[in-house]
Amino acid sequence: MVRTPNVAEYQVRQTDNGIDVAVIAEGVLDQGALAASLERMLRSAGVSDPRVHVHEVAAIPRLPHSGKTRRFIPMNTAPLSAVVLDDPQPRRTADSVRPQRAGRPLVVMAWVM
Description:
The chain is 12% helix and 35% strand. It contains one helix and six strands; from the N terminus they run E-E-H-E-E-E-E. It has a four-stranded mixed β-sheet, with helices on one face. Strands 5-6 form a two-stranded antiparallel sheet. The longest helix has 14 residues, at 31-44.
C-alpha cells in the first residue's frame, strides 16, 4: 500500500476472514480498487474468500510511548504482559550480567496472542 497513490498513512487490522484497512488519504482514493487489489493479494497468499474493508479516517492512533503507529494489528492481540517463571538454574547470559541465583524468579516479557 505504500505505493498506492494518495495513501498517506494506513493501518491494517486482521479479521476472521480478511482485513480491515484504515487509510488517511491525500486527495481522491479509489477505495473499491484498493480493496479489490488487497483481496487478490490475500487470495494469492492462500486466504480463501478474503473480505477486505477499506475506509478513510482522519487520524490513526499513535502509541503514547513512541509516537509511532502500529501498521499491522493481528487478531486477538493482548497488550504486553509480564509472565513470571520459576528458574531453578543459575544463568549467565553475558560477562556484564550477573548470574541469576537459584530459586530467583525469571521475568519474561511477551505478547499474548
